[in-house]
């Protein structure tokens, strides 16, 4: 839960840093639904190689996060920048992406937590990494939901 005065990014960033470390990844982040357009996700917190892209918005329907949303299960993608044009436009090669859903109460989908590798072809994600993301995802949907309530007096998601 965000502490008084802490931004959502400041609250989420430690989970990204832990995912980066525990999964031996080169980038990690948390993507959440944009309240104004539910087909868009925002990289709310991002660390590592893709850190400079924090705050970027992208289409849920055309992304690894969208696949994760569709299947409601962790997804492993090899070289996803080959399949999603906006990822290729970042100019960053992505060898592997492991994406886990952030599912809240009553099955509500709030976004994803993810890790990626770039230029180190010796790093490969496995079931332990998927378990790590599942562990780190616990409570994140509630944190995001509470942040939304704090911004929206009605407490509703668009």
From TrEMBL:
InterPro entries recorded = GAF-like_dom_sf
Q: What is this protein called?
A: GAF domain-containing protein
Q: What is the source species?
A: Massilia violaceinigra
């Amino acid at each position: 839960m965000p502490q008084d005065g802490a931004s959502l990014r400041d609250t989420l960033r430690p989970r990204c840093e832990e995912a980066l470390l525990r999964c031996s990844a080169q980038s990690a982040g948390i993507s959440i639904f944009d309240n104004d357009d539910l087909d868009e996700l925002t990289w709310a917190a991002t660390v590592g190689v893709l850190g400079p892209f924090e705050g970027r918005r992208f289409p849920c329907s055309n992304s690894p996060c969208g696949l994760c949303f569709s299947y409601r299960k962790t997804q492993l993608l090899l070289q996803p920048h080959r399949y999603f044009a906006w990822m290729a436009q970042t100019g960053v090669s992505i060898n592997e992406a492991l994406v886990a859903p952030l599912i809240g109460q009553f099955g509500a989908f709030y976004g994803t937590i993810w890790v990626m590798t770039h230029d180190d072809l010796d790093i490969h994600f496995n079931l332990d990494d998927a378990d790590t993301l599942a562990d780190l995802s616990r409570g994140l949907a509630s944190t995001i939901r509470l942040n939304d309530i704090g911004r929206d007096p009605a407490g509703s998601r668009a």
